[in-house]
Amino acid sequence: MANKPPFIAGNWKMHLTIAEAKNLAAAIVKACVDLPEAEIVLAPPFTALHGVKKVLEDSSVQLAAQNLFWEEKGAFTGEISAPMLKDAGCQYMIIGHSERRQYFGETDDGVNRKIKAALRSGVFPIVCIGETLAERERGETMDVISQQIRGGLEGIGAGDFKSIVVAYEPVWAIGTGKTATPGQAEEVHSHIREKLAQKYGIGPAECAIILYGGSVKPANSFALLSEKNIDGFLVGGASLEAESFIQITREAIRASKEKK
Ligand code: 13P
Question: Measured in angstroms, how far is the CA atom of residue 236 from the centroid of ligand 1?
């Protein structure tokens, strides 16, 4: 679908003190006043959520958590629930990031529980999927993506699906400087939309926001977002500096306006 507002999310991962996070958020808020055509979401580490929320108040920039646990409360030392994150001001939650799958054993079943927990709390999930380099080299990319969609979205109906953002992040492109070419990314994005259409129908699939993530930079943002099925970005490294994050957003807006 042409001309959805580009959706640009910054995943700050395990970076920044509270003071640094607030400063970065303030610089982004200031620049965003001139960029009303984009939806902007920031995902600071847990410790900075509350402080950043205060900076985002009175702006259109929204807040995301990087993870959650699916239970609401209880004896789960070290975990944080969806209602707690909502209380801290989060409107979005990143779920199933490849770093969580890779280093913390997160599975499609766990992703599915987390999506349902976020939805129960009225928070929008940003669900990450993507293949590893080995899977791509074995020609398994589309099968991996299909399985992650099937498992992650198991039991989630079309009504709830409207609240979900999908992010395609090829694992081999994350933090490596190796971006998927616009053609490679589009091929997978179009496969994702097709799978979503099979599950939810063409209308909801067309409306779905599908982000690309993996070494997004100001220099590649325009070409990537010019692709038909790329609706925005989940940015890691380049979101840690206001200038590069804003430049990515500007380029995305420019590409979106030129999209047919
Ligand atoms: P980089 O932009 O640093 O490659 O990270 C992408 C990512 O993992 C965003 O969630």
Answer: 3
Question: What does the chain come to in residues?
Answer: 260
Among all residues, which ones are annotated catalytic? 97, 169
229 Cα: distance to centroid of ligand 1 (angstroms): 19
pLDDT tens-digit profile of 203-233?
Answer: 999 999 999 999 999 999 999 999 999 999 9
Best of 97, 169, 247 for a ligand 1 pocket test (most atoms within 8 Å of beta carbon): 169
Cβ(171)–Cβ(130) below 8 Å: yes
pLDDT in tens, 108-158: 999 999 999 999 999 999 999 999 999 999 999 999 999 999 999 999 999
Q: Are 61 and 29 in contact (CB under 8 A)?
A: yes
Tokens of 57: 């108040």
Residue 248 near residue 207 (C-beta atoms within 8 A)? no
What is the radius of gyration, based on Cα positions, of the chain? 17
Nearest atom, ligand 1, residue 176 CA: 4
- The vertex-216 CA angle with 187 and 185, nearest 5°, equals 5
What DSSP letter does each residue of 93-122 carry, written as one string? EEES-HHHHHHH---HHHHHHHHHHHHHTT
